[in-house]
Amino acid sequence: MNIKHEQLSLDTQAGKITYLNITQQVREVIKNSGIKDGLCAITTPHTTCSVIFEEYVHDKDWKGDEFLQVDQNRILEKIIPRQQTESDYLYPGPAHVEFLKDLAANDPNYLPDPVSILNADAHIKGSLFGASETVIIKDNEPLIGSVGYLYFIDWDQNRERIRTCNLMIMGQ
User: Fold this and answer.
1) Three-state secondary-structure class, residue 14
2) Are strands 161-171 and 38-43 parallel, antiparallel or unpaired?
3) How confident is the model at residue 83 (pLDDT cuts 50, 70, 90)?
4) Residues 77, 88: one domain?
5) CATH assignment at residue 54
6) Residues 6+ apart with CB under 8 A from 121
7) Residue 123 lies in a domain
């Protein structure tokens, strides 16, 4: 059995939920892996992000967002509204705010501004949708059909970031 690891670096936007179609990148990683038959696990280490398998929709709104994703966001906003103030959700509590302030002092990925962590909604959506997908590889191709696509989603709308997506390809 062979195992290959790859990492995608993905730019996300501020002010909106970011959906990134990573299908072609995953196909290229699989093709370059040399693994003919096996599995590809696609994961995110970020607790406000998800990796999903969904149909590619050709129609987009005026902002360039796929219709299915716009519909999904509309439904989610009704059941998990965006956190605007510290009183919208219990999270983040005072102990977590202090933890993140300490973290921000040593890690440039975290901001010292507590408003930047008003993202309870993003954590809940990330938990519901999950952090990973696994696809079967046959003849050096992912078995995802002709309309199945892989998307990386950053639910956190507070700031733009560079996010990470990890791929592990294993097989023969």
Assistant:
1) coil
2) antiparallel
3) very high
4) no
5) 2.60.120.460
6) 80, 81, 82, 83, 89, 155
7) no
6 and 52 share a domain? yes
Question: Is residue 14 pLDDT above 80, yes or no?
Answer: yes
> Do residues 31 and 76 share a domain?
yes
Q: Which residue has the tokens 């995953």?
A: 26
Total domains in the fold of the chain:
2
Entry pTM? 0.94
Are 60 and 99 part of one and the same domain? no
* Cβ 26 vs Cβ 42: under 8 Å: yes
Whether residues 108 and 35 fall in one domain:
no
pLDDT digits (tens, 9 = 90+) for 92-139: 999 988 888 888 888 877 776 778 889 999 999 999 999 999 999 999
If one counts every other C-beta atom within 10 angstroms of the C-beta of residue 19, the result is 23
The pLDDT value recorded for residue 110 is: 76
Which residues, other chains included, contact 80 with Cβ-Cβ below 8 Å and sequence gap of 6+? 121, 124, 125, 128
Structure tokens at 21: 């179609």
